[in-house]
Amino acid sequence: MKGWTASDIPDQTGRTAVVTGANSGLGFVTARELARHGARVVLGCRSEKRGAGAAERIRAQAPGARVEAAPLDLADLTSVRAFAAEYKGDRLDLLINNAGVMALPHRRTADGFEMQFGVNHLGHFALTGLLLPKLLEAGPGARVVTVSSFMHMLGTVDPRDLNMERGYRRWVAYARSKSANLLFTHELAHRLRAAAGVRLVAAAAHPGYAATNLMSAAPKMEGHRAKERFMEIGNRYFAQSPEQGTLPALYAATGPDVRQDDFFGPPLQGLLRGSPIRSARARWTLNDTAGRGLWAASERLTGVRYEALAN
Ligand SMILES: NC(=O)c1ccc[n+]([C@@H]2O[C@H](COP(=O)([O-])OP(=O)(O)OC[C@H]3O[C@@H](n4cnc5c(N)ncnc54)[C@H](OP(=O)(O)O)[C@@H]3O)[C@@H](O)[C@H]2O)c1
To answer: Does the keyword Oxidoreductase apply (predicted)?
Structure first.
């Protein structure tokens, strides 16, 4: 995958993708590039207005793009269920679990989960499980790609305190939620491998550091103008573009040699910039017992069971 860019994405005509959090940052670019290469793309966005605006911008930037927005709030399982129930596509080839929040002050989802764990992991766990029947019907090249972060290295999932009731630390909560993304991919990959005749592949990606709205969401929420400004400066001088940051997820979704449980990111030796490679990951994200435990807890908390992959 040396030198791989978005122009290397193979033709996606006839395929359908769902991209969560597609109205801004990496999700927007992912959706645009998939659409530019012929896929029909459904933008899962929590704001209908921002979703419709993104669809319009994609059509302007990629004429002929087949995109539509649908409401999806990952902080509310009722909304996740409604999105899956109303999913109209007769097929689904790619699910890109991209939406995310980072280092928020303590908040809870509509269902009472800690917000970062709830949105980044549980919402996507539920969505993937609900869309699984469609993904399993898809042809070769079907993928579930979950966007994690290199910052997962800063914290493992604590099975006794998934919602961080014993003292909330916002960056630790983020790191744990991103470790959960990888553990989820690990266990999903394991179950897909074990199921007979399944072509669906579960992989993950991280963007390095890319200039998006992610960093300013928390300062904005708290009205902390100085912190917001600091994040803007970081984005301007140190981050790579969202176009560059999206390449690992696009490779995981469309690359030719993607295997179960692969994790792509920009090279560490390139200071987390450049074309995607198979990325280093914390050993705890490859732990089978932890993966099974998180899976069981996620099924219990969301009420979504992966019947087709039960073991
Ligand atoms: N940028 C980086 O350097 C970086 C580094 C490592 C990992 N990542 C990961 O990359 C992914 C994309 O983030 P980004 O950098 O592109 O940030 P972004 O520009 O802030 O985009 C995040 C997207 O997620 C959506 N979102 C937030 N809460 C949601 C909810 N409850 N339901 C549905 N959608 C929701 C946002 O919607 P609104 O616009 O409505 O808020 C937005 O569309 C995240 O998973 C993040 O953890 C990013």
So the answer is: yes
Distance 20 CA to ligand 1 centre (A): 9
Give CATH for domain 13-209+243-300. Answer: 3.40.50.720
**How far, in Å, is the centroid of ligand 1 from the Cα of 189?**
24
Q: Taking Cα atoms as reference points, which of 23, 62, 26, 104 lies closest to residue 266?
A: 26
pTM: 0.97
Burial of 213 (0-12, 13-18, 19+ CB in 10 A): middle
Q: How far apart are CA 152 and CA 285, in angstroms?
A: 9
Whether the CB-CB separation of 142 and 161 falls below 8 Å is answered with no
Mean pLDDT computed over 56-63: 97
Mutate to test the pocket of ligand 1, among 111, 177, 213, 243 (most ligand atoms within 8 A of CB): 213
Given a cut of 90, whether residue 220 has pLDDT beyond it is: no
Residue 30: the pLDDT is: 98
Starting from the edge strand earliest in sequence, which strands make up the sheet with 16-20, in order? 66-71, 40-45, 16-20, 94-97, 143-147, 201-205, 263-265, 277-278
Q: Does the pLDDT of residue 50 top 80, yes or no? A: yes
239: number of Cβ within 10 Å: 21
Candidate from 113, 121, 214 with most ligand 1 atoms within 8 A of CB, to mutate: 214
Annotated catalytic sites, by residue? 174
**Residue environment code for 67-100, b if the CB has 16+ CB neighbours within 10 A, otherwise e:** bebbebbbbbbebbbebbeebeeeebbbbbbbbb
Q: What is the reported pLDDT for 145? A: 98
**Nearest atom (ligand 1) to Cα of 209:** 3
Rounded distance between C-alpha atoms, residue 149 and residue 107, angstroms: 21
Whether 31 shows a pLDDT value over 90: the answer reads yes
Bridge partners, 17 (sequence order):
41, 94
